[in-house]
Amino acid sequence: MFKKVLIANRGEIALRIHRACQEMGIQTVAVHSTADANAMAVRLADESVCIGPPQSRDSYLNIHAILSAATLTGADAIHPGYGFLSENAQFARMVEEHGFTFIGPKAEHIDLMGDKVSAKQTAAKLGLPVIPGSPGAVEDEVSGKKMAEEMGFPVLLKAASGGGGRGMKVVTKSEEFVEQYRTARSEAKANFGDDTVYMEKYLSTPRHIEVQIFGDKHGNAIHLGERDCSSQRRHQKVIEEAPSPALDDAARQKIGTLAADMVRNMGYVGAGTIEFLWEKGEFFFMEMNTRIQVEHPVTEMLTGIDLIAEQIRVAAGEPLRYQGDNIRFRGHAMEVRINAEDPETFIPSPGEIKMFHAAGGMGVRFDSAVYGGYKIPPYYDSMVGKLIVHGKDREECMARMKRAIRETVVDGVKTTLPLHLWILEQPEFISGDYNIHWLEKKLAEKAAAAAEKK
Fold first, then answer.
1. Would you call 291 a catalytic residue per the annotation?
2. Alpha carbons 426 and 421: distance in angstroms, whole number
């Protein structure tokens, strides 16, 4: 087992990794920018190293600075968390080349799944259902338009190296194709340095369902159930829950088995998530994330398994401690992402948290690195923390989440807590009958109604 792990990240995920290491008797090194000198993970880690100024490109994306910090402190392994360099194959290779262990999958699998075109082709070869679409990249607007007309509108243009909704455009008719194609390529180039786009048939009422998977260096592969991430705004997840209220046991078992088989056949090592769109009883592979997810606590609450600790053990060469016969799924879990944003306009609200109180009580968990007096910097993601609850069933889970939201205090900055409470009170969410387009439509209706009152 490792003696010292360097955490190449910030915020709540850095603190989450530190906590897992501490419980395993592993020392930690926290790297940080000058803006994060007073971060909680930096305060609690055994060692800390400043790796640059506030801008991510000069600190958390600075591979050479991170590797130097690992060398300086004598770390055995590097955990990338999520975001930043977590799905950077070059970083994974350089970590291994410099004699450290990368706590994540092989660089070849990061490369393979990082390109959405090759990921879709690989999934199809391994037996997963895929959304009808272009066989590869859409090379030019003329052939792309012709293909879209043959496929039938609406279609979806997506950045091959993308994520988070950037470089993604819905085309509803032939006349729009050229403009949207050019816009998608431009956004893809600006955000990912790669203007390659591909095309899929646009599904009108799908749910976003992802399966948590794990593989080890001994050929073992498992799934840890699904999470329903269909509550979204601008392709960004807002609320996640498990199990999905849309699936029955047969569908749940089918998609979990398919995902685990794919991982086993790939020889994949570590944690990952295979994401699907589900519509009218059919699953379609969307992408694979080769890292731990923001919403991993939902699965932890449901199974009682520490996914970060399991990541570390697998990276150290140990076999998975869990197989199908000793994995138990209990009750219902849900997570809300609390962002420092205006809940109506979604404008970021950085600043000092003057008072902070995390909700508690039975079945409540609050993953955050903020505290009273902490100043939220304007340079990074606006997430303040994640509120996760567990109940014996979905009804109890939602009641507990509403209680926990009302109990949470983040004073000094605006947050999305009121938005989450409003979502939980909507009839469609209460019934579980919602899809990935529902929340945006609901918010548009809400904004229109507010405008009429003025």
1. yes
2. 9
